[in-house]
Amino acid sequence: MAPLAIPAIITAAAILGVFRILGLHRSLAGLVLAHVVLTLPHLLSTLSATRNLFDLRLDDAAASCVGAPAITFRRITLSLIAPAVVSGLLFAKVISFDEPIVSLFLSSPAVRSLTAQMWSNMRATPIPGSRRSRPCCSWSRSARAGTMASPGVAPAASQASEGTP
């Protein structure tokens, strides 16, 4: 239940440190495992609340009729706790979607979650209606050649290459 009490940045830094040692820090398996670690306490709290309300006599009655524990679980128990499982999975999905810090720490250009991609797109595109037409660092066409230009000021190298005096 630690992810419920510890801030996300501390959890993300700890997961990153452990995953770097294990070699999982830029892999899909590491990203999935980190989100499972973060969302599992929320899912378990939902299921444990349902389990406390569950009547165990129904399991006993089903076991006496059907016999096999796997069939009893699939037909009786799972059908009774299915709403809690679905709500827990939806809650886990929302929690996972709301954790951009972990996604940004563990993602790479090849492996990126939807949250990390949305964050990158939001940082790279201009805000509609704002006076700023470029992201925080303004680069001109000549900046691609290695010269950084200030916004609205063309560097002397690009003017000379275009034939202007």
From TrEMBL:
Record-linked InterPro entries: MetI-like_sf
Membrane topology recorded in Swiss-Prot or TrEMBL: Multi-pass membrane protein
Region described as Disordered: spans on this chain: 142-165
Cellular compartments annotated: Cell inner membrane
Keyword annotations of the record: Cell inner membrane, Cell membrane, Membrane, Transmembrane, Transmembrane helix, Transport
The protein's name in its UniProt record: ABC transmembrane type-1 domain-containing protein
